[in-house]
């Protein structure tokens, strides 16, 4: 760790990876973050005025968080320190701040969310008194990972994922600007560049690393101009690693996508989002708990078998285990997507719960109270109760709600699936009691 004010940390050295060698040298070179760095946009204006506050960069990997942080230090001509919360602790942070003494510095901390809540408290006084301009970079939702006192003192700036056209631009620039690659006169067509960009999945570092691996594969032993084509890219790429965050925003986004796809009766989308979560390492039992919830919340009595099936799928997965047990999850997800849907029970319980919370605690009607003692019987507990099984059809003209709520309806069954039969019986009971 050392303070620096020049370009010594990013100068091109032979051993540095391509992603560092072609790092943008000005704000105009940054690709894909025009909403922050375009002319007249917030961050660009603050940087050019030399009046940058402490803030959090929030965005996926490889979109320029570290680069923009470095550019801020370079343009503002302030001492710049770059740390990673993966490899240092609060002790090292305090040493840097102490070393700076009364000199204002920019402190860039990558993977900021890896500091726990107590560690994050360390930054508070220094951010508040302006000793440091703290730039925290995180791939996790700051709302979940950053303590409230820091969030109230720092701006959160969201960096967007890079699209394929952004990555193509970055790759072309690397091929033309990097000394090693430009001298090699590599033969690579537009389709292959787009393939590398697509495989990088929005991550510029990943795209440049893949291009560099391709170059290392072809630079030795080739006659004439080295050629990078589809076969070289596929060999260099090998296998895509699922990118998934089990505790942050992606965790919630994907489970939401699965739930909404099943609600929308799209079995294919449901399978895709399910696979994304499983292949990303999500706890299968977390997914099953959502499926069980869905069976009551969105299917309900339109298909009472849905709840039985999801519970059975849960037990099947526990019995078999992965990977074969994943089929039980897939079976349940497909069945739930293709069930008749009804949220009538969900809505009914919500209304009943609101009344239970908000209305007075009405007494239980005397005729449906329990009378376990002689005294309670003498006081009229249970008096006048009609036992339905003693009557034809097991239906009697009798009320069960408190007097103040007579006539209140919570459950409104639909005409879909099994709920259609329940609705017919419900109306039969109501009509009998009106006679």
What do you see in this structure?
The chain has 435 residues and is mostly helical. Helix content is 50%, strand content 6%. It has helices at 18-21, 34-37, 42-49, 65-76, 90-100, 117-121, 124-128, 142-145, 148-151, 164-177, 179-184, 190-199, 204-218, 230-237, 249-263, 267-279, 284-299, 305-320, 326-338, 344-358, 374-378, 419-434, and strands at residues 55-58, 80-84, 105-110, 132-138, 155-158. The chain has a 5-stranded parallel β-sheet with strand order 2-3-4-1-5, with helices on both faces. The longest helix is centred in the last third of the chain and has 16 residues, at 284-299. The chain is elongated. Mean pLDDT is 88; it is low at 1-13.
Structure keywords:
single chain; 435 residues; mainly alpha; Rossmann fold; five-stranded parallel beta sheet; 22 helices; 5 strands; disordered N terminus
Quick synopsis:
The protein has a five-stranded parallel β-sheet with strand order 2-3-4-1-5, with helices on both faces. The chain contains 22 helices and five strands.
List the helices and strands and how they pair.
Elements lengths: L17 H4 L12 H4 L4 H8 L5 E4 L6 H12 L3 E5 L5 H11 L4 E6 L6 H5 L2 H5 L3 E7 L3 H4 L2 H4 L3 E4 L5 H14 L1 H6 L5 H10 L4 H15 L11 H8 L11 H15 L3 H13 L4 H16 L5 H16 L5 H13 L5 H15 L15 H5 L40 H16 L1
Parallel strand pairs: 1-4, 1-5, 2-3, 3-4
Helical fraction: 40-55%
Specify the CATH class of the largest domain.
Alpha Beta
CATH names the topology of the largest domain as: Rossmann fold
Order of helices and strands: HHHEHEHEHHEHHEHHHHHHHHHHHHH
Q: Rg, please?
A: 32 Å
Low-confidence stretches: 1-13
The CATH superfamily of the largest domain is identified as P-loop containing nucleotide triphosphate hydrolases
Strand order of the largest sheet: 2-3-4-1-5
Helical stretch tally: 22
Indicate the CATH architecture of the largest domain: 3-Layer(aba) Sandwich
| Biggest β-sheet description | 5 strands, parallel
Number of domains: 4
């Amino acid at each position: 760790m050392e303070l620096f004010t020049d370009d010594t940390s990013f100068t091109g050295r032979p051993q540095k990876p391509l992603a560092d060698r072609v790092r943008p040298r000005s704000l105009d070179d940054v690709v894909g973050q025009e909403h922050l760095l375009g002319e007249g946009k917030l961050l660009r204006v603050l940087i050019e005025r030399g009046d940058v506050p402490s803030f959090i960069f929030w965005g996926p990997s490889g979109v320029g968080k570290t680069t923009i942080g470095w550019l801020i230090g370079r343009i503002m001509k302030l001492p710049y320190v770059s740390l990673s919360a993966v490899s240092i602790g609060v002790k090292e942070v305090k040493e840097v701040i102490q070393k700076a003494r009364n000199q204002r510095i920019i402190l860039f901390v990558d993977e900021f969310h890896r500091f726990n809540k107590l560690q994050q408290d360390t930054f508070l006084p220094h951010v508040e008194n302006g000793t440091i301009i703290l730039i925290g970079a995180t791939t996790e939702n700051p709302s979940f990972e950053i303590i409230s006192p820091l969030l109230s003192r720092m701006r959160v700036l969201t960096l967007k994922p890079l699209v394929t056209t952004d990555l193509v631009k970055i790759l072309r620039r690397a091929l033309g600007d990097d000394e090693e690659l430009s001298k090699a006169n590599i033969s690579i067509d537009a389709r292959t560049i787009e393939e590398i960009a697509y495989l990088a999945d929005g991550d510029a570092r990943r795209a440049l690393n893949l291009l560099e691996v391709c170059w290392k594969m072809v630079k030795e032993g080739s006659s004439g101009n080295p050629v990078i084509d589809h076969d070289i890219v596929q060999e260099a790429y090998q296998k895509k690693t699922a990118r998934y965050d089990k505790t942050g925003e992606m965790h919630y986004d994907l489970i939401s996508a699965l739930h909404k796809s099943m609600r929308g009766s799209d079995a294919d989308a449901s399978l895709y989002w399910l696979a994304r979560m499983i292949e990303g390492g999500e706890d299968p039992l977390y997914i099953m708990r959502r499926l069980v919830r869905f069976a009551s919340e969105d299917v309900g009595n339109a298909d009472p078998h849905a709840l039985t099936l999801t519970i059975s799928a849960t037990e099947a997965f526990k019995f078999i285990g992965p990977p074969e047990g994943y089929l039980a999850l897939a079976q349940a997800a497909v069945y739930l997507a293709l069930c008749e849907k009804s949220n009538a029970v969900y809505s009914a319980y919500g209304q009943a719960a609101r009344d239970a919370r908000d209305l007075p605690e009405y007494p239980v009607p005397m005729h449906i109270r329990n009378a376990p003692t002689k005294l309670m019987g003498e006081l009229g507990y249970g008096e006048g109760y009609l036992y339905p099984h003693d009557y034809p059809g097991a239906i009697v003209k009798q009320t069960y709600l408190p007097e103040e709520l007579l006539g209140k309806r919570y459950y409104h069954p639909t005409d879909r699936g099994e709920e259609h039969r329940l609705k017919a019986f419900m109306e039969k009971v109501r009509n009998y009691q009106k006679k």
